Structures are given as structure tokens and as C-alpha cells.
Amino acid sequence: MKIRLFTSLFAGLLVSNAVLSAEPAVPVKLPDFKEGQYVHQAPTVEDLMNSDKIHPELKKVILRGRDMFMNTQQFRGEYVFNDMNCKSCHMGEGRRNWSAPVWPAATTLPDFRGKNQHVNSLEERIAGCFSFSMNGTPPAYGSDDMLAMVAYHKWLATGAPMYEKNIGGRGFSHLGKEKPELDYNRGKAVYTENCAICHGDNGQGQHKDGEVVFPPLWGDASYNWGAGMTRVFTAASFIKNNMPLGKPGSLTDDEAWQVANYINSQERPQDPRYTGDVKETREKYLNFHKHTNYGTVVNGKLLGDHENTGSKPFLKPDALRPRTFD
Ligand code: HEC
Ligand code: HEC
Questions:
Q1: Å from CA of 223 to ligand 1 middle
Q2: Does the record's keyword annotation contain Heme (predicted)?
């Protein structure tokens, strides 16, 4: 099995990258849905093309949004300042359960969001991933690009009930927030054995012909310190259910936690909410950062104690602003 996977993977790399979007080649062990949960089947591009109910103009906009989602790197230096595409974390075109399918944002927002303490729209949720996960800045609200992104998310939600929140396979948190005892060196060992082959010895990822084939897990070209993936529990669940690529579910829960802690104990671009003092920023956003290693000392180094914003020439995008109705 192992041999077959890697042969096909590298053959795939030489010929095309098709294998990366293919369904996993080995049996996967994903969590069960709970009783009473809504389980969604998001439509496929084939469904879109075959539908005679969707106006051809709308099809064009949805396809544009999908293209932005799959190849967000086309906006490098504009909206995106790291090596990520939206699909790097939202795998299977943002449709896959247990890989934070993105459609629930279209049926559960507007709603209050703990991360920024106010009511968020779908546009604002998308803007959040641009600001943190992509270490960038979102397309302007109401712009053609934002419309295309919104259209893609809403179309994926086709048929899902509005404001149903008990959704099977949503998000990346099924391992729960209760972390086991974490050990840097155990995480490093899991990384070396299972991840370095694709993501590189220094988490830098891999490029081929100038394109990102395996995205980086830390460093300047990865997600920043404000991204949801820096929360160790979030990364642990993502990894458990989606990594190593092609073998999701193959790590033990403990291995997933250890390696999540390891990659999130490495440096990355500053949190856009940085106040100029890492300890103060950690305290101010402790609700979030109590789940990260930001502002803590790991191997004698205070993580996040720098002004480095990666290749992004600014710290905080204008879109990140409080909103109140007082
Ligand atoms: C580095 C990983 C990463 C990348 C890249 C990323 N996201 Fe996310 N995204 C997350 C995490 C983490 C969450 C929160 C999941 C959870 O709650 O467990 C999330 C949640 C979301 C949600 C909300 C889903 C829900 O259940 O309500 C949307 C919508 C979304 N992302 C859109 C995007 C878009 C659009 C892009 C590209 C511009 C993107 N994301 C890129 C990590 C990422
Ligand atoms: C066979 C190659 C391969 C292996 C092995 C692998 N990954 Fe990945 N990983 C990928 C690819 C490709 C993506 C992006 C998914 C996409 O674009 O469809 C990814 C995405 C990720 C992401 C989210 C995006 C980012 O860059 O932060 C994380 C986190 C991650 N992998 C962690 C791991 C960990 C931890 C391991 C080891 C347990 C691992 N991966 C093993 C290929 C691999």
C-alpha cells in the first residue's frame, strides 16, 4: 500500500499534479457523524455545468470564485502574501467533510463570532481567512472578486438548511480542545517520519516550476500567528483527518497532537492584531491564544517576539475592524 501510494504520488508529480486533488488511495478512518447531525453533500462542478436552473452568467461567477479558491496564488502580492491557496487547508475544493468545508459559513452567518467579538457576514468570514491564513488582505467588500468568492460558497451550500448549526464534519475540532501532555521532541519525531518528505525538513514546503506543490507549515511563507491553524487543537484535528496526504486517519490521536504542537512551535509571520508587545497581544486575545504557543517560551525562545510580517508590506489589513451597533 505504502509503496503504491508513493509511486503514484511521485509519478503524479512528474506528469501532473492531478493526484493531489484525487480522492485518497488508501482506506481512511474518519470520525462517525453523530445522531441528529445534518450531513451535506455539496454539489460538484459537473452538477453546476449540467444544471439548467442556474443562469449562465451566475455559472461564470461561481466558476470564477472556484478558480480563486483553488488557485489563490494568482493574487500573490495583491490579496495573498504567503504560499497558500484556500484549498491548502479546505481540501477537496472546500467541499470535504472533516477538512472544514466552507459552505456552512453561507448558512450560519450573519452570526456573532468569538474571534472578533461582533456579528460577522459571509464576506467578513472569507476576509478573515485572507487576513490570517493567507497572511494577506481580502478583496474589497462588494467587489467583483468578493462577489465571486461569496457565490462559490453559497452555491456549495445548495440545499442546506439555513441556521442549522448541528453540522456533521464541520470545522477542524473533532479531537476536542483537551490537549494531552505535549512534548516538542515527540512531535519532531512524528514530523520527520511522516511529513518532512513533502513539507520539507524545515517546514518550507516544496515548489515545482514556481508553483507551490506542498505548502509550507511554518516560516515566512506560511499562515501567520493569528490564523486558526496556529491553535494546536485545530491543527491536530486537521492533521488527524487529512494528513499525511493520501493516508488520512493513519496517525494516532496522540501523534496528531504532538506533530500539531511541533509545527506550531515554529516561527511564522506576526499576528495582524499585534499591539507591539507579544505578551500583551497574547493576553488581549487570550481567548484565542490560550490554544496557541504564541507569546510562550519554547526551547528558550519567546515565540512571536518580532516585527516580521513575512512578504506582506503591512501588519494589519483595513478590513479587520470592530463593528458595534451601540
Ligand atoms: C492555513 C489554513 C487555511 C487556509 C489557507 C484557509 N483557511 Fe479558511 N479556515 C481555516 C480554519 C482553521 C478555519 C476554522 C475551522 C474550525 O472552526 O475548526 C477556517 C474556516 C473557514 C470558513 C468558515 C467555515 C465554517 O464552518 O463556517 C470559511 C468560509 C473559510 N475558512 C474560507 C476560506 C477561504 C475563502 C480561504 C482562502 C482565501 C481560506 N479559508 C483559506 C484555515 C484555513
Ligand atoms: C504526500 C505529501 C504530504 C505528506 C506526507 C504530508 N502532507 Fe500535509 N499537505 C500536503 C498537501 C499537498 C497539502 C495541501 C492540500 C491541497 O492543496 O490539496 C497539505 C496541507 C497541509 C497543511 C495545511 C496547509 C499548510 O501548509 O499549513 C498542514 C497543516 C499539513 N499539511 C500538515 C501535515 C503534517 C503534520 C504531515 C505529517 C503528519 C503532513 N502534512 C504530511 C501534502 C503532504
A1: 11
A2: yes
Q: Where are the domains of the chain?
A: 184-302
Q: What is the pLDDT of residue 26?
A: 52
Q: Which residues of 77-109 are buried (b: 16+ CB within 10 A; e: fewer)?
A: eebbbbbbbbbbbbbbbbbbbbbbbbbbbbbbb
Determine whether the shortest distance from the Cβ of 234 to ligand 1 is under 6 A: yes
User: Residue 80 pairs with which residues in a beta bridge?
Assistant: 76
Ligand 1 pocket, mutate which of 69, 70, 81, 133 (most atoms under 8 A from CB):
133
Q: Which residues of the chain have pLDDT under 70?
A: 1-28
What pLDDT score was predicted for residue 167?
Answer: 97
Which CATH architecture fits 184-302?
A: Orthogonal Bundle (1.10)
- If one counts every other C-beta atom within 10 angstroms of the C-beta of residue 157, the result is 21
- The pLDDT value given to residue 27: 54
